[in-house]
């Protein structure tokens, strides 16, 4: 009994926020990093890299935030559409909804008698019945009505925070190559740390997940730098 009371379940809470941060931060660290690396191989002024980097971060954060907003609105619209349809089916196809409810209880192992009693009980309250069918028949949870706005802000701000990491060294040096060296070290460390925590949260082996994300960033930056040097030459 004591062991049961002391048991602590480890579940992710507020996964929407974590998802938004992962989306924004991963692109924010990678895309401006690749841009700065590419420009370092093509221009001789850190001023140009800083201006281009800030412009990219502004555009990228807006685009990513807008994508998050539209995804949130789509989720809300989809839920409302299915909710309206479910109410219509409860009103006009009650016998089918009764059968579907019984089938659910049958699938989780209830006896015929309990299926009947549970279905009768839940069908007494239309709203409760509809909410039950939305969740267990369609697998839809009611979305937060402010989810779209929150998602846009979370993703956009995470993108800005991530993008400033690879760009920040160029604020303090005059040579693009010097800025690139510092940017590479700083960004790869941040990508590794970010990948470590992301892997821990998602249940992936932390070291391999962190290494994978750091390598992806390194390859993207290396490719951009190589292409810029090639065409610059």
Order of helices and strands: HHHHHHHHH
Count the helices. How many?
A: 9
Radius of gyration: 26 Å
The portion of residues forming beta strands comes to under 5%
- Structural class comes to mainly alpha
Given as residue ranges, the uncertain stretches (5+ residues, pLDDT < 50) are 1-9
Helix content: over 70%
Sum up the overall morphology in one term.
Answer: elongated
Beta strand count: 0
Q: Average pLDDT, to the nearest integer? A: 84
N-to-C span: 74 Å
- How would a crystallographer describe the biggest sheet? none
Whole-number tally of structural domains: 1
Short structural description:
This protein has 233 residues and is mainly alpha-helical.
Provide structural commentary:
The protein is mainly alpha-helical. The chain has one domain (15-227). Helices cover 81% and strands 0% of the residues. The protein is built from 9 helices and no strands. It has helices at 2-6, 15-40, 46-92, 94-107, 112-122, 126-136, 147-167, 176-202, 206-232. Helix 3 (46-92) packs across helix 6 and helix 4 (94-107) packs across helix 5. The longest helix is centred in the N-terminal third of the chain and has 47 residues, at 46-92. It is elongated, with a radius of gyration of 26 Å. The model is unreliable at 1-9 (pLDDT under 50).
């Amino acid at each position: 009994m004591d062991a049961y009371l002391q048991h602590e379940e480890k579940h992710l809470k507020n996964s929407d926020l974590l998802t938004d941060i992962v989306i924004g931060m991963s692109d924010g660290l990678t895309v401006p990093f690749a841009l700065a690396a590419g420009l370092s191989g093509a221009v001789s002024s850190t001023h140009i890299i800083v201006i281009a980097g800030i412009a990219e971060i502004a555009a990228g954060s807006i685009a990513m935030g807008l994508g998050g907003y539209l995804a949130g609105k789509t989720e809300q619209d989809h839920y409302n559409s299915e909710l309206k349809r479910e109410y219509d089916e409860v009103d006009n196809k009650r016998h089918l909804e009764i059968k579907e409810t019984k089938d659910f209880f049958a699938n989780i192992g209830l006896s015929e008698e309990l299926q009947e009693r549970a279905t009768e009980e839940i069908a007494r309250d239309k709203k409760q019945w509809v909410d039950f069918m939305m969740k267990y028949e369609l697998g839809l949870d009611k979305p937060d009505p402010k989810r779209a706005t929150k998602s846009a802000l979370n993703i956009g701000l995470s993108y800005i925070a991530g993008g400033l990491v690879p760009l920040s060294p160029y604020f303090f040096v005059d040579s693009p190559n010097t800025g690139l060296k510092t940017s590479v070290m700083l960004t790869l460390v941040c990508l590794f740390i970010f990948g470590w925590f992301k892997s821990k949260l998602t249940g992936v082996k932390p070291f391999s997940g962190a290494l994978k994300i750091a390598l992806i960033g390194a390859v993207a930056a290396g490719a951009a730098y190589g292409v810029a040097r090639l065409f610059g030459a």
